[in-house]
Amino acid sequence: MMARTLEPEVMDEPEQARAYANADFEEENQGFVDRFRDFFPEFTEGHVLDIGCGPADIPIRLVRAMPKCRVTGIDASGPMIEIGAEAVRKAGFSHRITLRCERFQSCELADRPDAVISNSLLHHVPNPLQFWYAAKKTAKPGAYVLVMDLLRPESAEEAQAIVDLYAAEEPAILRRDFYHSLLAAFTEDEVAAQLAELNLSRLLIDVPDDRHWIVGGRL
Length: 219
Ligand SMILES: C[S@@+](CC[C@H](N)C(=O)[O-])C[C@H]1O[C@@H](n2cnc3c(N)ncnc32)[C@H](O)[C@@H]1O
What we know:
Blueprint: H1 14-22, H2 26-39, E1 45-51, H3 57-65, E2 68-75, H4 78-91, E3 97-101, E4 115-119, H5 128-138, E5 144-150, H6 156-166, H7 172-184, H8 188-197, E6 203-206, E7 212-218
Parallel strand pairs: 1-2, 1-4, 2-3, 4-5
Antiparallel strand pairs: 5-7, 6-7
Helix pairs in contact: 1-4, 2-3, 6-7
The chain binds S-adenosylmethionine.
S-adenosylmethionine binds at residues 9-11, 25, 52-54, 57-58, 74-77, 80, 103-105, 119-121, 124-125.
């Protein structure tokens, strides 16, 4: 199994943030929101924290689907938060979505969230235990959790084959980021070990397809 190769933590190049925001993640992002609702049908209202919210497409889809929820999205990238704030304003959800430009490692919310979500963030993070620790300490005890990210392939060749299969038509900058993200991602066993280390035994990991893992449950 190939070792992890880190990529830059924060996506703060304006061009990179724009390319990411303009990419078509509709299926993936709507799929994430649908999965949240399938996992937790009893969760219909409350405060949701999106860690590494990027251009805020998931928060917008979530509040649209769940009219009694509000979202705080945090991202350490200024350009991402600017793009996200504009999208939130255009979608008419400024009263239900708050975006904050900050690292999750130093995030403190007076209004502790009832749920924590995060998509495609963990592979950016050098020390993943900081992420699980932040989720645990920021949210209410018993909060709902849904976290999804890429799965690291066995080899660089396999990573390239995944990029060629799923992103053949995407711009070069996105293909480059996708490839590096795959190399920086975690394996199922590594994520399971992270959860065990932080005693997050009520969170379960699943591998829904050839390139993602998903963790869901209650804190
Ligand atoms: C690949 S994007 C995913 C964005 C969004 N969750 C989505 O699914 O569209 C990962 C985001 O995490 C942000 N990020 C990375 N490290 C972070 C940190 N320590 N704290 C907050 N945000 C971070 C990056 O700036 C980037 O916008």
